[in-house]
Records
---
Amino acid sequence: MQRLIDKAKVLIEALPYLSKFRGRTIVINFGGHAMEDPRLRETFAQDVILLKFVGISPVVVHGGGPQIGHTLNKMGIRSRFVAGQRVTDDATMDVVEMVLGGMVNKEIVRLINRAGGRAVGITGKDGKLVRARKIPHLEERNGGATELVDPGRVGEVEAVAPEIVEQLLGGDFIPVIAPIGADGDGVTLNINADPFAAKLAAALRAEKLVLLTDVEGVRGPGGELLSTLTAEEADGLVQDGVIEGGMIPKVACGLDALREGVRKVHIIDGRLEHAVLLEIFTDQGIGTELVVK
């Protein structure tokens, strides 16, 4: 009986959030270990469907770095990374598009549909959703010197035309989007999923941007998990070297999303089952939320 009462308390705790976010859009960047673990993929699909069923509009953006790397290895194509970005020549771009826009995208769609949702998979090229521009160079440290490296067909989001996503949401579908775009000449470019999701969230005037990662969230000077950070506080922690490594670009794209109108950004541990629901529908949450002030 106590277990049943505890379940009822969880539902009551979620009630104000269900009411507050009904009719709002939430963009979720699905990546990291959560994409590789079959059980976590299934619970993520369940989370997305529940959001849809309670009147929230989820939009899923996904990466697929490990899957791309595995396929490249099988094909005998060497991977190279500079500043965290995969150097993408023409052959690598073909694999990226095949894996991200095909295998990975359609597997997420399949999981959501099998669990009772109505997902549709697209890339940033569909409906001219994303116009991209090529990143001209990346900086690579070589001993004491810095070398400028051409990353090939690696891009960043220049503009978003969200009509195709809005039409899918209006048709009661769950969009699942691979972060691939094309430039003004129609050249396909590989785009990092975090900033892709941030730009999309801003264009959709999303209530939240949720970034799944493989750590609990942002930690403070003493190693403690910070449940809430203002943009000003986050900037200070970066300047002080407290936020470092791979968390810097994740926080940076979150702050960009806030500056462009997204109300809150959540950096959460995707290794936890039902991480999205725990962050959105509980008082304490499980990760770090970034807010304007």
---
Amino acid sequence: MSTGDTYIAGWKTADDWQAVRSKLVGNSDPSIWKTVFEDYFCTRLNLRYFGPIKTLQEHGTFQGEGFSILAIQCTLIEFLESTVQGLKYRYLRKGETLNPNEYSSSREIFVSFLCKRDPFAKDFDDTLAKDFYENIRCGLLHEARTKNGWKVWAKGPVDSIISRKQRIVYRDNFQLALDSFVDWYGKTLCSDNTLQEAFIRKFDDLCE
């Protein structure tokens, strides 16, 4: 059940979403989808994720804030991919099974994003994506560190997100790649019915 006064994107509440949702169902008008993308998706990302990352980048000392930046980026990846697919996370207890449009494996969603979504797909394959998930994402979120020799640097070669050989993640390049993905997603959302239906499912979930 939705809580109407829950803030989901800046000052936008679950009630606001329900009001605009009625205009979205069955409506492929690019202009309304562009507005919803900016008002709900971009506002949520900018205020909760990209804004704090930018603050850390601009006021950092290169003495460790890269770990905080990459941790924020890692928490965002699962949301991005589950939004593209229109999936809801559910923790499965013994004997339970998933309903349609639900998932329980964060690893699968995370790997899917890195291997399928540009510009990440040019640098990641299944093996590297799983390595990243286990030793960077889980290392940062569970132990506040990277593992198995992975390092975080601020910048790397142009268009290079990660160095497999040197086991380095370039956190500023990684952010540029996220920006590029979000730009693609916003443009495609305005005309892709499958993405639009998935978007509605995801924001319905956020309002529960």
